[in-house]
Amino acid sequence: MNSVEKEIHYLNHEKGFKSWFWTLDHKRLGLMYMWAVIAAFVLGGVFAMLVRMELMQPNSLEGGQFLSDQVGGLSAADRYNHFFTLHGAIMVFLVIIPGIPAALGNFALPMMLGAKDVAFPKLNRFSFHLWLTGALFFVGALLWKGLDTGWTFYAPYSTSHSDTSVIMATSGAFILGFSSIFTGLNFLVTIHKLRPEGMTWFRMPLFLWAIYATAVIQILATPVIGIALLMLSVERWLGIGLFDPALGGDPVLFEHLFWFYSHPAVYVMVLPAMGVVSELIANFSRKPIFGYRSIAMSSVAIAIFSFIVWGHHMYVAGQSEVVSVIFSALTFSVAVPSAIKVFNWVATLYKGSIRLNTPMWYALAVIWLFSIGGLTGLFLGTLGTDIHLHDTYFVVAHFHFVMVGSAIFAFIGGIYYWWPKMYGVMYNETYGRLGCFLSWFGFNLTFLPQFVAGTRGMPRRYFDYDPQFASYNMWSTIGAMVLMVGLVIGLFALVHSLIGQRRKAPANPWGASTLDWQCTSPPPPHNFDHAPSVDDPYDHDILRWDEQEQGFMPIDPVDGDPNLAKMGSARTAPATHS
Amino acid sequence: MISLVPLLSPFLQEQEGSYFFPVQASEFAADTDWLFHFILWVSVVSFVLVVGVTGWFIWRYRQAREPEPQPSATHSVKLELIWSIIPSIFLVIMFWEGFQVFVDHRNPPPSADRVDVIGSKWLWTFRYPNGAELPELHVIKDRPVRLVLQSKDVLHSVWIPAFRVKMDAVPGRYTQLWFTPTIANGPDEFFPLLCTEYCGTQHSSMNSKVVVHPNAASFQTWMNEATVDYDPDPEKWADNGALVYKNKGCQVCHSIDGTTAGKVGPSFKGVFGANRPLASGESVLADENYLLESIENPIAKVVANYAPAMAVNGGVSLSKEEKDYLVAFIKSLAD
Ligand SMILES: [Cu+2]
Ligand SMILES: [Cu+2]
């Protein structure tokens, strides 16, 4: 295993804290984003567990209240409100929104383009430093007076009533917004400008289409939440009446501004996840993705539609009836492109040669979870049923299926997929699959009962509830524990691969034809020693398993390919498809 | 000790209503539940198809059986049109049916009785046509009721699961909802009315009761009992105050037995005549003037270790007499 240490690659060509903190290398930035996001995920997860423990039993039962009565001048109910708020705010702003685009996007996007780096490496580093600053503000809010507004920051509670560090938290979200805008801008320009010769728009890997569509949303929608949070802070700080009717403002206006961003933001979370899943499904079934163009175009369609459906969060908020009807109709239109993606994934499996490596397990889990998340969205888009379901545990379960079931599961799947490229090591498949299975199982156990609790009458954001909901909550908490064990095993499998006996990863362990697998694992600091050859991103016939390499090798290497010498037989039939 | 009995309770005890819903107690309930189950079955069939086909493909085309992929179409306009158009048809139906139900929910008949609902942290007050302000919602079976909602402070939301109705109470504007109750419940039974828009510390206890009377006479009997004219005899002030304490929501934040669990304010027990430590570090003797000031202008003297969470008059409207009764009541709880 000495050879691993001797190779010069992006991880070891420079050493020390500064070489990481001030790096311009997209791969190092991607890696740092990844670990930072994982750290935030752990923090958000701790709050989630505190919430679930409190809700395990109704307080009316002996010992049913988990949080002790008074701590630091805050009642148990107050601390519960802090916990669910911090859970939501951290998971949304620090984990899911930056998760796939910033971590995996940064790592893989330039390599998928055969490029040396993103278009603006310094801006990229600045984005990361903004993320860190935003995160510091969040931690500051947490340590100072906490936050109890819900991640939605609804006024006038947030402006005139809450006695917590609201401005500190909104400032954090504001800064994180800029991080997100700059990342989107960077990726957008990179995809426009740095595509290699031969890579037309419709020869781009679908992950890039997804990141592109995401970038459009990030750039156009994020400024609106920035402004909304700024207005909120100004009202809270200076008493300028914008949202609080007591000062002459309108609270529904805040809801409009908030959801104008936050609905598209759902697709900032979900589109990249869909991109990852498209890559995984195609590569692990060794098939070209079915309906490439419809998947690519549905990403763009989703990005556009996502801007005109926000009012579906406000059917019972006091907005005009006509507006609600229009928003309901538009909401259904966004369901179609999402469904198309799922059908295309399933069709891709047809006549494939399916390999069930850990990333594929996660991709299949996403098909399951996203289907449930998407289908339960229909109940909420429908005006008549949403009246009953709005702001209940049905909604809580629905958006966890979408945001965690799709975004987080795809994120973890993506980490497993690119892990060999990131660190040049192979992880243990048994641990990886076990982690995935337990996470999937625990997730379903956590959130399926919540649908029923919601329809039967349990509102969201409740510190305590009627004993009739005891069973759903008990199951849900047990599910959360299983989910936690699954996630810990998932993380353990990755860390485990880095310590002790490392198993060296080949350049292309999965047989993917996208360019990111054409450089060594881990890649050299500048990714490619020579310009990679551009081919169809999903043409798997040009690769063949090589026993000695324990990875895939091109059958028909281009001139100058370092693997040329190792090549055996010539390519038999040219593989083509339209 | 954690009891595991709840895990089994869905199997042990008979649940009221259907699997997904509580009893259908308004004219809206059947429509909502039908629509829900329609979407549910469309979803279940779609889900089973997607997951079933996925599972079958994974099994059929696993690597062990198919070491190499076989060539197949990379796209099919026909297939893609089919799986875009068929779901779209169902989506249009869902939208249309949902729209119909929504229109019903939004158009109260002109004959509906009106009750004003006032949300304030963390209490619902119902103002009846006769001017009575009470903490419970009483309605009459088969008579349409229109609730006109308002909020004194932050966003709240009225949800009556048994009726399948919900509407936010928004400060600075009026919103409304209506329903026709179809099931009467007895004096000890009620349908819960819950706040579903997060509103702070006691959001989860901002609940009230909906009692459906079988007929107008029964409603009137209750109304007469609930709105006894206060006896102005000073001997009776403390008793009157106990009623105001209950009806005007002071009990949401203040107990009268010395406990503070679940309440944001101090207990009234033993307050009168005591030296109250204040947040400013000073302390004040709790006499009648202090009590009155604490009600009318709560932030003037904030009790130590408590947040200034009380609104003027506890967030409700109080007459001069009611304040006198409250002061007398708190005085009667002196140690
Ligand atoms: Cu939305
Ligand atoms: Cu409320």
Structure description:
The complex is a heterodimer of chains A (578) and B (335). With 578 residues, chain A is mainly α. Chain A folds into two domains: 26-504, Cytochrome c oxidase-like, subunit I domain (Cytochrome C Oxidase, Chain A, Up-down Bundle), CATH 1.20.210; 515-572, no CATH class. Chain A has helices spanning 2-6, 17-21, 26-55, 76-112, 121-143, 157-161, 166-193, 206-238, 251-284, 292-305, 321-349, 358-381, 383-389, 393-423, 429-456, 470-498, and strands at 70-71, 74-75, 543-546, 551-554. In chain A, the strands form two sheets. In chain A, strands 1-2 form a two-stranded antiparallel ribbon. In chain A, strands 3-4 form a two-stranded antiparallel sheet. The radius of gyration of chain A is 24 Å and the shape is globular. The relative contact order of chain A is 0.10. Chain B is α+β, with helices and mostly antiparallel strands. A five-stranded mixed sheet of chain B has the order 3-2-1-5-8, with no helix packed on it. In chain B, strands 4-10-9-6-7 form a five-stranded mixed sheet. In chain B, a hairpin with a 2-residue loop joins strand 1 (113-120) and strand 2. In chain B, helix 2 (27-60) packs antiparallel against helix 3 (77-106) and helix 5 packs across helix 8. The longest helix of chain B has 34 residues, at 27-60. The radius of gyration of chain B is 28 Å and the shape is elongated. The relative contact order of chain B is 0.10. The mean pLDDT of chain B is 89. Chains A and B meet through helix 4, helix 6, helix 10, helix 11 and helix 12 of A and helix 1, helix 2, helix 3, strand 7 and strand 9 of B. The complex binds copper (II) ion (2 copies).
